[in-house]
# Entry
Amino acid sequence: MGTERDPDNALERQVHELLRALPPRRAPEHLATRVLEQLAQRAAMPWWRRQVMQWPTLARLSFALLAAALMLLSLAGSSRLPHFANATAPVLSWGHHMLAQLSVLPRLLTALVGLLPMAWLQAFLVLAVFAYLFLFGVGAAAYRLLYLER
Amino acid sequence: MRAYQDMVFTTAARLTGRDAQAEDIAQEVFLRAYQHFEELRANPSAGGWLKTVARNLSLNYLTRHRRRWQLFSQLPAADEEDAPAEPQIPVPDTHLSDLLLEERRALIDDALGHLPERQRLSLVLYHFEELAYDEIAKQLRVPLATVKSDIHRARHALLKQLQSRGMSADALEA
# Structure
């Protein structure tokens, strides 16, 4: 309990007494059943679907060895990286080509915007802002009414 | 489990303000307790352990929930921004003064549930969980002054809620 409690504060004392006099709430009858069911479900789960720390010792040891082996393999593989780069060169060049094609898109978009009257653009922007605010408001209202009130 | 289930559920329900979430949290608390069964079986502070885990899980839930919905849920209610009015001195009546304890509990829990989330949390952590102001500030990651003002406002709001539900002066003093 905090040392900052003011024993003379009547309101604090009144609320404290009021709240501390309350009996605990009764837990739902089915809580114990739910917990036992969950425990049974977990016990029936095969070991490989449980947390790693709950795996059998042998499985954990094998997993650690496998992970270490994979790590070493990837380190060894990285030393052969130049060969790998040569093998993937055609794929990379195709990727660069595709990116170059995509760079046309912004210019196309700018040209299209230039064709539209300014008033249309402004109206579209205003409409978009209003639509965003409207949907935001609907979302907030729905949340407060449907979720918080439950 | 039966000995502690009401306490665990109550802790979670008062902190989250939602029974469904409190039930999920209580379930998780007992599942974790089962993992530490050997340590807890003969431990006299098992109740404290369960309560702490229930409190931490509830606060974790609320933190996740708040991050997701902060923008919406923290919109202040119309009367929330005003300075709290001093609670009027309740007019003694006998209408509800003889409320049974369980009815009183339901009434007060309902009133607690209607407080703004941060106020309810601070109030519950202070009065039920008996945390100090600075501990509450740390748990909720809000400034100390905010905690103090939230608790002060929450007390006023709670009494106001109870009076509006017809709880008499006698019942409030009892």
About this structure: The longest helix of chain A spans residues 118-148. The helical segments of chain A are 10-20, 31-44, 57-78, 81-102, 104-115, 118-148. DSSP finds six helices and no strands in chain A. Chain A touches chain B at residues 1-4, 11-12, 14-16, 18-28, 31-32, 34-35, 38-39, 42, 139-140, 143-144, 148, 150 (CB under 8 Å).
